[in-house]
C-alpha cells in the first residue's frame, strides 16, 4: 500500500480522498492555489503545498508544479480526483516516469477512451450496443453528408475529444449540416486542441444512464449498478440517483453485462464509468467511458455500502477486487443534489463570494460532502460546486422525501445557490413519476 498520496485536486473531492486515505492509514499532501489557501482540504491534509496563483492554468493544471510538490514531499502516488488532469494521459505518463504512481488507469487506456471515435469502435468490437453513426472520425463535409444519408436526421456532430457540451451541434436538416460541421470543428480545436469530429444519430428525449465499474490489475471487473443522470442543464448534471427508476432487474443485468464486456475489452484497471443513452423504447447505447472517479459516485456508495475511493486506491496498489464485491446487491435508493454557487433565477449566473452563514442538514440517511464553511470565500476561478447533498432511503419515495427535508435544513447565506431549483425539481410531478429525460428542464417548465 502507498505511504503518502498527493491529491492533485481541490474542494470537496480533495477532502473526500483525504478521508479515504486516513482510514487506510495513508498520509496525504494537499496542493492548493493562493485562492484556496483557506479551503478545508488544506486544513485536514497531513501536509500542504501551494502550487501557484488562483487561475487553474497556473496551479491545478500545471504539471511541473504538481510533480515538484510530489517530489519535495516524497509522495509515492498521486490521486487526480475528477476534472482538471484526471483524464490527462500526459500527466499520468509524467507521474509514472518520475516514479510516482498515478491512481487511475494506464495512460494508454486514458488515451483510447478519451478518443470518442476509438472508444465507440472498441465497444462495438466488444458487443456493446453503440449509437448508429460514423465509423470513426468524419474527415470532410462530403463524408458527413454520406453518414447523414445513411442514418437520417436528426443527428449530432460531436468532438472526438469533447466533453461538457463543447464541440457539439444538433442538426435537423441538410441545410444546417455545413455550418454545424465547420463550427463544431472550430470549437473543438479551440477547446481541446483536437478539431476532429464524428456523427451520431440524435435522440430527442433520451435518458442518461451510467454504470459504475471497478477493474483490477488481475483481469477482474465488477459492476456496481447503474445511476440515472438525466436531470441536466446544458449537458451538466444536476441530480443523480441510483438505481434508475427506468431500469428493472432484467435491464440491469443487460447493462451490467455490456459494461463489463466493454471494460474487459480495454483491460480496465481502476474505478470508471461507462455511460449509455437510453431511447424511448428502452434500448440503450454506449455513449462514452469516464476513466476516473465521478462526481456522483456517492449514490453508488450509499446503495452498495462501499467506499469507492478506498477500493480505487487499493486497486492502484495492486490488490485484487475483494470476492464480496462480486456479489453485492442493491439496498434501497439514493439521490444526490449538486449544490452550486449559482443563481438559477438569473440564468445560472455564478455567485462567488463569502458564505456568511452555513448550516448543513443531518439525520438518518443524510450525507453532505463539502469543503465549505461559514466565512469561507468561494473563489471565482473554478467550478461552482460547493457541496453534494446525498440522501438514502428504503425506496425512491423515501429518498425523495428525505432529500426535500434535507434541502429545507440546508442554509447557505451570502451567496446564491441551486437549492431552490432542486426543491422545485423534486416536487415536480414528472420527476416524482420517474418520467425523466435529458430534456427535463426544458419540458417541465420549472418555476423557482
Relative strand content: 25-35%
The major pleated sheet works out as: 8 strands, antiparallel
In CATH, the architecture of the largest domain is 2-Layer Sandwich
Overall structural domain count: 3
User: In percent, how helical is the residue content?
Assistant: 25-40%
- Structural class designation: alpha+beta
**Distance between termini?**
49 Å
- SS summary, helix count: 15
CATH topology of the largest domain: D-amino Acid Aminotransferase, Chain A, domain 1
Under CATH at level 1, the class of the largest domain stands as Alpha Beta
Tell me the Rg in angstroms: 21 Å
By CATH, the superfamily of the largest domain comes out as: ATP-grasp fold, B domain
**Low-confidence parts:** none
Q: Looking at the structure, what is the overall shape? A: globular
Going across the major beta sheet, what is the strand order? 13-12-9-10-11-14-21-19
- DSSP summary, beta strand count: 22
Amino acid at each position: 500500500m502507498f505511504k503518502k498520496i498527493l491529491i492533485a485536486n481541490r474542494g470537496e473531492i480533495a477532502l473526500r480522498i483525504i478521508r479515504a486515505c486516513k482510514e487506510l492509514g495513508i498520509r496525504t499532501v494537499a496542493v492548493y492555489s493562493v485562492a484556496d489557501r483557506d479551503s478545508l482540504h488544506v486544513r485536514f491534509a497531513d501536509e500542504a503545498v501551494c502550487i501557484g496563483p488562483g487561475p487553474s492554468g497556473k496551479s491545478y493544471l500545471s504539471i511541473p508544479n504538481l510533480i515538484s510538490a510530489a517530489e519535495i514531499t516524497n509522495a509515492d502516488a498521486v490521486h487526480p480526483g475528477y476534472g482538471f488532469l484526471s483524464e490527462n494521459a500526459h500527466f499520468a505518463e509524467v507521474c509514472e516516469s518520475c516514479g510516482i504512481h498515478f491512481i487511475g488507469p494506464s495512460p494508454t487506456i486514458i488515451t483510447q477512451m478519451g478518443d470518442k471515435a476509438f472508444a465507440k469502435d472498441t465497444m462495438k468490437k466488444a458487443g456493446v450496443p453503440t449509437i448508429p453513426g460514423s465509423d470513426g472520425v468524419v474527415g470532410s463535409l462530403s463524408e458527413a453528408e454520406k453518414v447523414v444519408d445513411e442514418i437520417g436526421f436528426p443527428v449530432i456532430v460531436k468532438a472526438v475529444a469533447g466533453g461538457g457540451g463543447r464541440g457539439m451541434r444538433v442538426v435537423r436538416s441538410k441545410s444546417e449540416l455545413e455550418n454545424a460541421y465547420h463550427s463544431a470543428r472550430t470549437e473543438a480545436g479551440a477547446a481541446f486542441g483536437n478539431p476532429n469530429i464524428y456523427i451520431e444519430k440524435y435522440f430527442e428525449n433520451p435518458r442518461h444512464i451510467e454504470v459504475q465499474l471497478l477493474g483490477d490489475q488481475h483481469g477482474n471487473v465488477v459492476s456496481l449498478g447503474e445511476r440515472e443522470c438525466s436531470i441536466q442543464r446544458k449537458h451538466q448534471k444536476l441530480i443523480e440517483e441510483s438505481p434508475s427508476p427506468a431500469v428493472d432487474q432484467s435491464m440491469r443485468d443487460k447493462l451490467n453485462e455490456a459494461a463489463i464486456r466493454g471494460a474487459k475489452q480495454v483491460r480496465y484497471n481502476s474505478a470508471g464509468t461507462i455511460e449509455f443513452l437510453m431511447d424511448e423504447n428502452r434500448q440503450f447505447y454506449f455513449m462514452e467511458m469516464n476513466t476516473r472517479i465521478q462526481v456522483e459516485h456517492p449514490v453508488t456508495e450509499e446503495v452498495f455500502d462501499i467506499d469507492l475511493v478506498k477500493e480505487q486506491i487499493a486497486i492502484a496498489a495492486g490488490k485484487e477486487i475483494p470476492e464480496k464485491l462480486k456479489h453485492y446487491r442493491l439496498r434501497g435508493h439514493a439521490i444526490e443534489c449538486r449544490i452550486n454557487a449559482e443563481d438559477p433565477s438569473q440564468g445560472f449566473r455564478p455567485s462567488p463570494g463569502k458564505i456568511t452563514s452555513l448550516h448543513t442538514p443531518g439525520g438518518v440517511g443524510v450525507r453532505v460532502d463539502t469543503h465549505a464553511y461559514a466565512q469561507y470565500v468561494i473563489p471565482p476561478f473554478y467550478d461552482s460546486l460547493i457541496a453534494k447533498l446525498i440522501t438514502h432511503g428504503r425506496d425512491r419515495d423515501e429518498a425523495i422525501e428525505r432529500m426535500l427535508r434535507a434541502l429545507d435544513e440546508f442554509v447557505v447565506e451570502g451567496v446564491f445557490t441551486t437549492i431552490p431549483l432542486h426543491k422545485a425539481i423534486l416536487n415536480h410531478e414528472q420527476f416524482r413519476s420517474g418520467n425523466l429525460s435529458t430534456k427535463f428542464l426544458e419540458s417541465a417548465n420549472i418555476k423557482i
